[in-house]
Amino acid sequence: MSTTATSRAPAKTKFGGTLYRGREGMWSWVAHRITGVLTFFFLFAHVLDTALVRVSPESYDTVIATYKNPFVNLMEIGLVGAVLYHALNGLRIIAVDFWSRGPRLQRQMLWLIVAVWVVVMVPGAFFMFKHSFEVVFGSK
Amino acid sequence: MTSSPELAPTIIAPRTPQRRTRGRTNTELYAWLFMRVSGILLVVLVLGHLLIMNILDGGVQRINFGFVAGRWASPFWQVWDLLMLWLAQIHGTNGLRTIINDYTRKDQTRFWLKMALYTASALVIALGTLVIFTFDPNIN
Lengths: 140, 140
Prior knowledge:
heterodimer, A: mainly alpha, 4 helices, elongated, B: mainly alpha, 3 helical TM bundles of succinate and fumarate reductases, about 0% strand
């Protein structure tokens, strides 16, 4: 950061940060990296656990049983949320790069994808956790 | 200091096309483009995968060896999974390559981290591909 500092400071906005730094543009980029790395490491584990179908049905079923545990199920919802954010923000990046009005509307598009994320995640998390809820609170 | 015409720095005319250093390629451009093209395909492939595996029809609770055997009996899902594996792994590897390039300071660290990354990726792609092509529903 310090090496790229220019003599002229970027114009401050009335909210504190600059037009980009410390604002939606930067934080969406940070979140994109974190969700991407998270997904990468999960994919590594997921290909290995799926590869157990070449070992025996029992070993595959044993490892898949881990995913059905309520706590792991909760982490799985987190993973789905991370992947969904990465997908939606990726589409936003493509719009910024290729759509002539994209750069000007980057902030509005971020709030749009956040809204879509919430609308998809609320029912998504509900259906994903329904069974775990019944297990934890005793109806199953 | 008096300025002499002989010592005056040569000023290149504005808008002179930048001369390319020998040996430079467009690899980074293709990598950038690949991220966007594969990204769009992965939105469909991965979100579809997550919807089917985690939400529809009982979600993760219904997944076992028999479920995988039923799916991979169809070439459609074999191609889907193969495409998803290759695109996601290359997309993720290029993303991590960018992150390594951004945060490593020593050439040695950068080199070895990337070697580890490429080795892991090649392994995941090879193993995943092998599993999809050699899957045997009657393994036991």
